[in-house]
Each structure stands twice: as C-alpha cells, then as structure tokens.
Design goal:
The structure is a homotetramer. By secondary structure, the first copy, chain A, is α+β, with helices and mostly antiparallel strands. In chain A, about 25% of the residues lie in helices and about 20% in strands. The interface between A and B is large, with 111 and 111 residues.
Chain lengths: ~375, ~375, ~375, ~375
C-alpha cells in the first residue's frame, strides 16, 4: 500500500533505508517561481545531522544533499523536486549479530510480521534517518511560507524531568537562540541543565523522553479545511508519523480536560483591522481553521529505545535472550533533541499544503 | 477543496448541516458480503443521540437513519452505502439574533473569514451534529472488524477533575457496562461522581472538558503502513478531526517525556504461538504497525464552548458585545460524554481501513 | 476499494442503485459563493431523463432532485453539496426471472464474480442511471465554469452509420439548437435522418452505437497538470468511466496515426494580446495543458446491450440459454443520445477541477 | 499541484528533466517478497532506449539505472523502491538559440504560460524522456503480474499508413518476436515495410504517427472498480498521460459506433470451469471489470513534433519566426515505436494496481 507520501497539493514522497545507498525525497506540487538554493536545504539538514555535539548520536553522516530536479536558474519550475542524500557512514556489521532478536521498543518485530522480511541494517526503513528527507522538504516549504509572510520555529521544551523555565515570548531572534543551543532550547539556563542531565544519562547507559513545541506566527486566518482536513488533524497526523512520538496537543491540549468553558473560551476583540482573542487556549484554530492568533502545539517523544543497559527479551524462535548494546553504540540519548528541526519541517509541510488548499475555498 | 472524506480504502464522505434538511454519509469501499441491518446502525446512533438523559443536550433528535444504497438482501454489495439522517428538531430562530457575534470558542468567525459566508443555523457544518454520520459509518466498520475478530470500546475516563478511580481491566461485558452509564463511564462509583458534578455545572451555567479512552483488543499484528500512514498517525488524524478535541496520545503518551529507556521499553516474550510484551507502554504499535498487544489511546476534549454565563466579545463590525445564551439553551455540559461513541466510531473506521490496506502488504 | 469518487479538488462521490430507494451525489470542494438553484440542476437532469420522446427509454423517471446540504441563501457555502434523486418508477419484477442469466454485453457476470453478489434489479449499481448523478453535479460545475467565462457543449455527431453532415461552427445558440433536437444533434437534416434510423431500429428490436463530441471554448491557457494529470488524461478517464463508452480521442485523435509532422503541427501566431494557432489538430492542449484554443474531444459508445432479439448465452450453472427481452422493454435504442448531457457534465467536472488545481501552479 | 504520481495502491512518482542531473521514479506500494533484479529493470529500459537502430533518435543515452532503495537480498521489502537514471548525453546548447520560439506541437508555450518559466533544455519535464521512468517501474509491475500468472505485450500495429497485415494471434514467443523487430512489429513483412517507410521519412525531414496495441492474457475475472476506477478508465488515463497520445480505445473501440447490438454483444458459454464469450468486442471488460477474456486496447500517437522542415510560427514577443531544426537533429521519426515498451509499462502499472485493489472487494 502506497504510504510514503504526505500532503495533498504540496506533497512529499520519501524513500530510502538507513544503510542503503541513499535516502531522498520528491516534493511534488511546490508552486513555480520560488527561489531556493542547495545551501538553504543543506543548512536545514545540518541542524538535524548527527554528530554535531556530545548530546546526539556520533554517527558521522554529513547528510550532503543534492538537488536532482525541479529547480532551474535558481527557482522552482513547478516540476517535482528530487533531493537525494547518500548514506556515507553506514556500518551494518553491528546489526548482523542481533538481527534475530526482538529488540524492545524497536520496529523490527512488527515490520517482519507485516512484510515477511526486514532490512535490519540500521533499522532499514524504520530508522529515524528517514526524517532527514522531511527536513530537506521542510526547508523548501519554509521558503514558500516565508514568501507568504508566515514565520515559525520549534524548540525543546522538556527533556526528561527538566522543563524549560522561562515562558517563551516571541522574540526577533528566537530561532537563532534555539539553534545556538546544543539541545535546541532557547533558554540558556534550561539548556545548560538539560545538557548536564544528558551527560549523566549517557554515562548510565540510559535514555530519556522529551517534549517539543511548535509555534507559528503571522498565519493568515482561514487555513485548514473542515471537516477531515482540519488544521490540527493534519498537524497531528504529521507529528504522530514521526518515529518515537507518543502524543500531540494543540493550545490548551490535555489541560483542557479539567477547565471550565468560561476559562477556556478565548474572547474576541477588535484590534485595528485585526480580530484577536485575549487568551489563546485554542492554540490558533477554531473549527479546524486558523484564527490568525499564534498557533502552538506540542509533541511528546518517548525515550530512545536503543540503550546500552541489559534487557531480557526473546528472539524470533521464542527463546529468551539477554541483550545489551555495547557501550559507545551510536544512538541519541534523547531523540526529542534532533526531532526539533523535524517537527519544524513537518509543521512547514502542513502549512504549505493548507495554504495552497485555501486558494480554492472561494469563487 | 474536497475535505469531507476520511480513509483510503474504506472511505467515508459526510455531508449536511445542523439545521439543513438532513445529514448523511457515503461509505465507499466496504467489502461485499457483510451482513448489516438498519437496526445495528440505529443502535449505534441512539448511543450518541442527544436528549437521552439530563447530562446531555436536550435537543430532541431521534436521529432516525435510513439506508439508501449499497445493501441488498441484508448484505453489503461492494457499492457505496449511503445513510441519511433527516434533521427533525432544528430550531434556527435562536441563532438569528446572534449571527453577527463572534462567539468565543466557536467556528463562526473562522468559517466566515474562510468562505465569505456561514450557515449560522445551529453551527451549520461546524456543528458536532456531523459526528452522527461518523457513528453511522462506524457501526458498519465495527461490524466488519468483528467479522475479523477485532473488539474495541471507548469510555469516559475523566470528566473535569473527576477521574475514573479503578483501572479498567478488560472484561467480557465492558461495553455493556459503559453504555449502561449515563456518562459512558464503566465504573459505577466514578460514574455517579461525574453525574453529580455535571448537575452542579448545569446549575452554574458552566461546562467542562473530559478525557475519552479507546481500547482495541485482538488486533492482528501488522496493521498500519509506514511511514506516513502509521496506525497512530491515522488515529491521531481521526481524533483531532473531532470537534472540541485538543490532544491525542497513545500508550504512555505525554508521560513518556519523563521516562527512561529501560522503563519504557516493553520487553518481548513468547507466549505459546504468540509474541507478547510484559508491559505495554507502546500502547499497541511499534514503528506505526500494530504489535498484537492491546491498543490504547486517549483523546482530550475541551469544555463545551456554549455556556450560559455572560461573555464579553465582539461582532463582525468590531463592536464589543456582552453576550450570554439563555438558561436552558440546548447544549451539552461536557462534549466528551457524547464523544465516547464517536471516538469508538473513528477508531473503527481507522482500523477497518488499515486492515484492508494490510491485504496488499505482501506478494 | 473506494472507487465512487471523481476529481481531486472539485470532487464528486455518487451512490445508489437503479432500483434502490434513491441515487445521489455529494459534491465536495465546490468553491463558496457560487449562486446555484435547484431549478438549474433540475433543468440539466431533465435533458438526460428517460421518456422524453420516442427515441429514448420509456422509463417514467421524473428524476426530481433535492438539494440536502451545502447551499445557503442561494449560494454554495464551501460545505459538501448533497443532491438526491429518489427512484420512483422502478419495476424490478422483470429482472427476477432473468437474474441467473449471463446477459451478453451486461455487467452482471463480472459484478457477481467480483463481489460474490449482485443487486440485479435494473442493473443495480452498473446501471446507466448512475449518470444522472453526474449530470446533477455537472450542472454545478458548469455554473462555476460559466462564472469563470468558460463555455462548452456536447452533441451527437454520429448515430450508427448516420454522420452529422455539416461541420459544427461555433454559434451563439449552439447549445439551444442541440437540446431542441430529440437526439441532441444540432444539424436539423442530420437530426431527422437519425430519428428515422432510430424508429427503424426500434421496430427491428435492435440497437446501435454512436459518437458524441465535446467542445469547450474560452478556456484559459494553463489548465492541466503534468504529467499524470494532463487535461486529456483526466478527460479520458472521465469519459471511459461512462457506461458503454469504448473510445476517447482529442483533436486529430486516431486520424493522427497517419498524418505527417508538418501536417499535424499547429503553427502559432500572434492575434492581438492572444496567441493562437492556425490549425487545431492538437484539440486544445499541448503537453497536457490547455492552449487557449477550443478543446474538442470525442467519445465512442457501443450499441445498447439490451435488445429484444433472441440471443444464445448461458446461465451461472453453465447451461445454454436462449434469451430475449420482451418487445417494448424499457431501453434506449442508442445510449449515445442520452450520453450527450452526461459527456457535457463529465467535461464540466474535469474542467472545474483542473481550473482549481491551476490556482496552485505559481507562487 | 501534486500531479506526478500514478496509481492508488501500487503508486509511482516520477521526477527529473530531460537535461537535468537525472530522472527517476519512486515505486510505493509494491508488495513485499517480490524477486527483482537490476538486470530485469535494465533489460526493459534497453528496449525503450534511444540510439538502438536507425529508426529512433540517435541520442546516446545508455539509460543506466540504479536501485537506491526498497530491495534487500534480491527481494522487495514493502518499502518504496527508488530507481534513478542519470542523464549522460544531454546537449543543451542546441536549445538555447530557440528558447524564445513557440515551437509547433511542443509544450514550451503552455508550460511557460502556466508556470511563468520553463526549463527549455531538451524539453525539460515535458520531454518523452520521462517515460523511461515509467518503463523502469513497469518492469517491477510486470514481475509482480507474472507472479500472479498474468501475461501481456504491446506492439506497433500501424506506422503512418502502413498497417500490420496479419492478425495477431497469441503465440508463445510473441513478445520475443516483437522485440526482435527494430520497430516492435511482430509481423516480419510489415516490419520491413515500416522500416522502409521510416528511412524515407527521415530523408524527407518528416515524421509520422502510429498505433500501438496492448494485449493482456490470463487476467483474472474481477479486476477494475466501479464506477470511476473502471479498468478501461484507468487504462485510458494511463495512456492519455503519455506524450503525443491522441486517442484510446478498448475492444471494438470507435468501430462500435456503427455496430448493432446483436453484432456487438459477446455471448457467453461455459468452457469447463471457465466462462468465456464467443466474440470479444468488449475487449476484456464489462461494466469496467475484467471478464477473463483477453484485454485488448489501442493508443493513437501523433507524428513527432520535432521535424527538420521549415515551419512558420511566432516567438513570445509575437513576432513571426521561420524556423527549422538542423538536419540530423536528434529526434524519433515516429514516437509510436519507442512508445511500445512504454504502453506495455503503463498497462502493467494499471493492472498491478487493479489487482491489488481487488483484494479488498470482498469480506
């Protein structure tokens, strides 16, 4: 079943396994006339790339992208844009000995049962490496959105039990601050705490979960199509398609369950030509359509499944197996960190699609 | 933009406004040969219908369904099944005086800005009344799933600050217990507390949020298609397309953010012919594909936006307006209650679609 | 498999069997703000309705449509438009005795083999009655296209061996002339010949094929999306989804196979602000995108399969059966006649969809 | 608008321009467990490649494919298969001088008007070079179909006024005979005549059209989904999405217009366990669903638009331009020849998709 595409008008299709020849993405439906350069795509990929600092996986993938099609004389032509990223530092030898083990928290068991086979090298298609393709495509979507005046950023809000302390106010250079932090948390004190926590985790062979928030500003009113293409439904689908994501919420989210109507209702007021709301528990949409207020949503990520501590599980023959990855294995102690640019990318893809869909709403 | 369809192989398209002539649904892609009767569909609709007890909206809609097509001699034929539900108790007179007011928490502002017009009568297309169509279609999907051995149920887990006390263990008659409760909470003591809380809320002109859980049992391994049609991504999209939903989580959900890898990893063991996991923090999927363990996910609903307490908002001309619905207005004090059969229906639609998609996974 | 929808942005979903309670269509994605009345839809349906004159089926279906949703205060709202047409003159008794016979040229054999069952009454879902829904939806699409300055018409060009004599030049009232003819042929002399031929056919218990041409004028340049959504590919799909259609061609069509390049190439010239071509063998598209020249395509229809002459076929048990429909059975001697408004409707649906798709081509 | 994908369950997405870095295709939804090798794909590509003999374009593209993903240990894994074909012999210098000319029969005018820009080098995305990607994907689809017992072939039936003389009877080595002919015509005498005709055409600077027939054998009964995914509708869409195609017909095709019902109706008879028809005017489908009889359809191709004879056209500024390609320019005198493997590939893609769709028809 074809299931590697996302979006309706601005649609991506990704391909490639973690240890195959290359991974890549085809972006179909990007409007013609958009200025885009390889540098801009590469810059986005660099933020997600592993091995940047001690807090992420040491795999040495440069993630060097190449644009194969769809861009001519520096601009998109309306033709599909294929971006390809060769795999350079794949080391499959470590996967051969453990290929018969049902790895806890991993997808090898379910893939094998579904397809009758599994490319076990580096997790094959189930690897989070696939998200590099989303980031490359997201960079194009971001460029399109910026041409329409929309701005946005994601950041790490919680890492394990460490929560970002200050509330994030929108600031001119917020995105710069986020990506200056090794853990993509714009608050310096919180970032430092998170980093200490991570070093301790690595030492102990453990991993932790985290929370990523996406904020979108200057979104026009009217994006999102009732009833099954509501903006939050598309965002939820986008975020829950990410490896390791366990939850999605918008605006008040799960806190809404214990609020009262008069607390939660955001009352409208007129602000010059704009209509705004005093509070924003809605989180930027009503009835699945953007209100013009900032959009804010959050994605919960589980702790990395690859840990070096011993676990007792079984193999495909049903035999109990004691199993641990060797110390120094290449994995992220917290997948939520490198998920930050990915959440941002998925947000961009949803918004680009929604913005184009909205062009057909009226006569 | 066509956006009123849900699903790929087992696909529904809904239509109709709250106060129009009728609402309805076309189910396309239901396999031929499935026994289904109007009674079964009606029974599902009755659970969602308003006016059943003091805890829901007093609108007197019988929601009397009619099957127009696709069923012959008691069985589906493979042709599209159209089910129609006429609107009988629509009273639009109350909406005329407030049609120029930007109602807090409602979608009239965003619809109007998007489309340049709005059928304000009863909320038009943005009304939760649309969900009756999902329930009707869900009853057909449920029948299909039962023919494949899959069972499932949803229930109210939290109403405002009242949480269900006992943990829900799977029991033979769990679904019976749920629907015996006026608030769809299978624990009698908790149900009673919730009902008291609701009566107090109604008295005070307020509303509250709530939390609905969906549990699926006996799901085969292998459902869900990587990477953008992951089972949890489809469920998230389904649930976040519901009116008033603010969050979705699966398994450990948002709690996962502060867990460690060794805590969260569900270890496998062999149980006769089956493979199972000791814990189930995953919530029934790995890599977006069902594991065969019970699937559990939760949906957060905001408090009903329609309250009788006064609110200060503005109208389309930007003038401040003091506004309250009259006491006794027809609304639910907590939308999460009647959302229970709707969450169940959306779960059924996702699973039916996923199960059919899985038929194409292998040679 | 969901397969009863057509179109991407302007999408229809049809439902209903020939002898069920009703047939109908949901139009999803029609832009908001379009003026449309039931009368306009009914007028289109009346052209396709049977029993209008001696040259079509005597079934007395008034095809009285009702709009259930999506129109408010005389205009579309952006919500799905459901139009329903109850079946009034269904007489299933004639189908009971022949339900075990594999009817030559009919779909009962293939439906039964595919689905394991068949609603044999009046051909069930395989009946050409389904095309009434296309006509109803086409009337809405037509209204949208007219608001964008596009005009078009279909007509009967050949009926059996009778070809329309004069070449059709575009004329102000061409559509009026077409629908004044009982066989939808705008040339009076040809129309008369066709009618004589039909009366002879009816007498002899026979049927014949026919050819329908669609012409579209004032189409903007740029409609159609390469490479798999080329305008002619969408038109071909639309027309070949019609019952009894056996071929589709655009512009030069099958004649192109024996032409030379310098004959076939339409040379461009500048005509004020417009670019035109001297000839129009292309038929209105190049590279799958409209050129701004008139679009012309043709659809070949086979002779009606229901004839009153005896045929020797077999039943589901494999026994040879001699079989003829009684004289006076309700069928069209030539399905191509009533196909004229259907071809027009399908053309309108394709163009409406394509026109909306084109809104997303550029930045 | 995303428009570079074809198929629903077995879906391809192509990318790349004629003179860009590479062209390629992503095949999504191919069932897991299918044996496929690069050699098999390359063999298919070699049949379509230019420069094989004097009757096709002299462009020296080896069309050397590479499989980037989706195949592991010689078998498909269910993950998307990306096949890439670098462009090696692109010579864009010839296109620079003529980039402002509206080339008769070409798509540069319509692309430029639609997108506001055009990658003119070698026709960019509008080039027939894109069809190499269809052939690569078709080779995979073919392998899948063969595993299900389906066999098929296409061949050149008419080249200009030269028609194949003998009727094609199904023979064991028919496909071998076809591909032994330099013009893909299995009848040796006809093939020779066509070749002579082509040499004369080349000499005179002209081109011609042609007709390609597709035959499919051993197709199971039941493929094709009513009503908008009828098998012939999907085939028509597939074939009319090919560059230069002007018409499609199935079975009796355009001849049906002048046949009578008793002539055209194919009568059924029982042949052991099978049901067959004496004649096969239907061409293999009834009601859009395969009958089990051989499927036969034809595609009409216009003459190649690139000719070396002078033409008078205009440029984007509206000035009249006299224009001819230099003698010896790289083009095919008849595009229908190299279209043969492409028609075969499109047939394979449609049938693979339809076959998988059919798995969901029944309970």
């Amino acid at each position: 079943m074809a299931s590697n595409s996302f979006g309706t008008i601005f649609r991506i299709t990704t391909f490639g396994e973690s240890h195959g020849k290359a991974i890549g993405v085809v972006i179909d439906g990007c409007p013609a006339g958009l200025k885009i350069s390889l540098n801009e795509i590469q810059a986005a990929l660099d933020l997600r790339a592993p091995g940047r600092n001690p807090y992420t996986s040491p795999r040495k993938e440069k993630d060097q992208a190449d644009i194969l099609s769809g861009v001519f004389e520096g601009k998109t032509t309306g033709a599909p844009i294929c971006i390809i990223i060769p795999n350079k530092d794949a080391d499959s030898s470590k996967y051969e000995p453990i290929k018969d083990i049902l790895r806890p928290g991993h997808a090898n068991f379910t893939y094998t049962k579904k397809y009758g086979c599994f490319d076990y090298r580096g997790g094959g298609r189930s690897s989070a490496r696939e998200t590099a393709c989303r980031v490359a495509a997201g960079a194009v979507a971001r460029k399109f959105l910026e041409s329409q005046g929309v701005s946005f950023y994601a950041y790490l809000k919680e890492l394990g039990s460490v929560c970002m302390e200050s509330n994030l106010e929108y600031a001119e250079n917020i995105r710069g601050n986020i990506y200056e932090s090794d853990v993509f948390c714009p608050d310096k004190a919180s970032s430092a705490k998170m980093q200490s926590h991570l070093l301790a985790l690595k030492e102990s062979g453990e991993s932790t979960g985290g929370l990523v928030e996406l904020q979108v500003h200057s979104l026009p009113v009217g994006l999102g199509d009732p009833v099954y293409e509501k903006l939050e439904a598309k965002l939820a689908s986008a975020m829950m398609s990410l490896p390791a994501s366990k939850g999605f919420e918008i605006g008040s989210g799960f806190d809404a369950t214990s609020m009262s109507g008069s607390e939660h209702n955001d009352c409208f007021y007129s602000d010059g030509d704009l209509v705004r709301t005093h509070s924003n528990y809605a989180g930027g949409t009503l009835g699945g359509i953007s209100t013009g207020m900032p959009l804010s949503c959050r994605v919960a990520f589980k702790p990395t499944s690859s840990i070096t501590n011993e676990q007792i599980t079984c193999d495909y023959s049903g035999n109990e197996v004691r199993f641990n990855l060797p110390k120094g294995s290449r994995h992220d102690p917290c997948v939520a960190i490198r998920a930050v640019p990915v959440v941002e990318a998925m947000g961009a893809l949803v918004l680009a699609d929604t913005l184009l869909m909205n062009r057909c709403a009226r006569l």
